[in-house]
Amino acid sequence: MTILASAALSARAEYPEKPIRFIVPYATGGTTDLVARVVGEKVAARLGKPVVIENKPGAGGNIGMDAVAKAAPDGYTVGMGAISTNALNPHVYKSMAFDPRKDFTPISMLGTSTIVLQVTPSLPVNNVAQLVEYLKKNPGMTYGTAGTGTSMHLAGALFSQRTGTSLDHVAYKGSAPGINDMLGGHISMMFDNLPASLPHIKSGKLRALAVAGKSRSPSLPDVPTIAEAGVRDYAVEPWFAVYGPAGMPPAVVQALNKAYIEALAMPEVKEKLTQAGFTPRGSSAAELAALGQSEYERLGKVARTAGMSMD
């Protein structure tokens, strides 16, 4: 027992000996990229080695996370997994290069973002109840999202299921073109990431009816959750977390977990990320593992019922 304890202490003392690569499976410039860079800078200061951000977007995050899964499990390559890559995508994509239940080591939560249900001011509804009534009278109305298989698509599919309404999904290549079509009057409804839509909501060009998470957004404190607005058993809260390849040494996981939790708790980190519409929150590795498993099962049922599918 003494020898094992000494070995564990030695592993902690030696790690890290070189820079850590943090793969972000999304494009530069977005909220996820901001989270990785803001938190990564503080983690680097705690571990004494640089955290190098590498963006590898594509296939709904699958390309980047596949690179994480195939990396050496030595703690020098980690990545930003999410509700999509580690819970939803396996039920949406017909071919997956990795199994999120087997091919990763959970390290820590990073936090959650907010999805907003918004409509154009010209649509004659002011709340979710009025929207549901309108949709039942006008079946097949289109709604936009930032893409097929995204958490926003999931939010729309679950809304349709829980309210018994018929909706036609329009998948855009990101939030911006969908918002542009709303502002241009081409579509009247959208489930979108709050940071992209918030300026238009505040200017009155778009109307926020509700947010999709379990709690209200600090950025829109007067806007209810969809569940509060009367849609029972509804919650879609995009979460993001740090994962490494399967088989990482426990001492290395512990060192990384401690560094990320401490970084996320820093007031300046909380302020910067909250302003971007992100709610920072760390967790134990065990808590992240349990979340991933429960979300994998829950979202699989939603995706199958909605027929969400990508080649």
Structural summary, described in words:
With 311 residues, the protein is an alpha/beta fold. It has two domains: 2-112 and 238-306, D-Maltodextrin-Binding Protein, domain 2 (3-Layer(aba) Sandwich); 115-211, 3-Layer(aba) Sandwich (D-Maltodextrin-Binding Protein, domain 2). Helix content is 44%, strand content 20%. It contains eleven helices and eleven strands. It has helices at 2-14, 31-47, 62-69, 83-92, 128-137, 151-163, 175-183, 194-203, 250-264, 267-275, 285-306, and strands at 20-24, 51-55, 77-82, 104-113, 115-119, 141-145, 167-171, 189-193, 207-211, 239-245, 278-280. The strands form three sheets. It has a six-stranded mixed beta sheet with strand order 2-1-3-10-4-11, with helices on both faces. The protein has a three-stranded antiparallel beta sheet with strand order 8-5-9, with helices on both faces. Strands 6-7 form a two-stranded parallel sheet. The longest helix is centred in the last third of the chain and has 22 residues, at 285-306. The radius of gyration is 20 Å and the shape is globular. The N and C termini lie far apart (51 Å). Mean pLDDT is 92; it is low at 1-12.
